[in-house]
Task: inverse folding
């Protein structure tokens, strides 16, 4: 993977220990310790670039042989993400309300590593939103119970 990324010039994240700044730069195999491990987007980009050099997907699509092409998912990894999410779901929701959520971030980190930061952020937002909607829902249940 490192050889292919260096050859194709895939942009990956530089590792900066002293700051929270993330810098994208073309991968350089001579200094691999300066780069963070490839995330999902960078890995997919490298694989698509490599396959694009070997196979002319545009030709196959214009000639009608294929309609579209997508990367396959690793079913075992997706199952691990779902299991982790089911295990930590209520702890993560409770943690979003009371503030001790970082120790339950395993499913979000797994989503980030597999699908990318965009989808992990969306999941984190939805979990946070659902957690904070629990409070008014209990108030609403109490009001309806009083009316009945």
Result:
């Amino acid at each position: 993977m490192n050889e292919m990324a260096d050859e194709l010039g895939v942009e990956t994240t530089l590792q900066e220990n002293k700051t929270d700044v993330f810098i994208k730069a073309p991968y350089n195999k001579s200094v691999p310790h300066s780069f963070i491990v490839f995330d999902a987007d960078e890995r997919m980009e490298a694989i698509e670039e490599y396959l694009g050099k070997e196979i002319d997907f545009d030709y196959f699509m214009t000639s009608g042989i294929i309609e579209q092409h997508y990367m396959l998912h690793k079913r075992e990894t997706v199952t691990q993400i779902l299991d982790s999410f089911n295990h930590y779901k209520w702890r993560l929701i409770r943690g979003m309300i009371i503030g001790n959520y970082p120790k339950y971030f395993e499913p979000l980190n797994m989503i980030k590593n597999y699908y990318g930061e965009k989808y992990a952020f969306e999941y984190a937002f939805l979990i946070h939103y659902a957690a904070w909607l629990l409070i008014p829902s209990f108030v609403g249940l109490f009001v309806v119970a009083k009316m009945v």
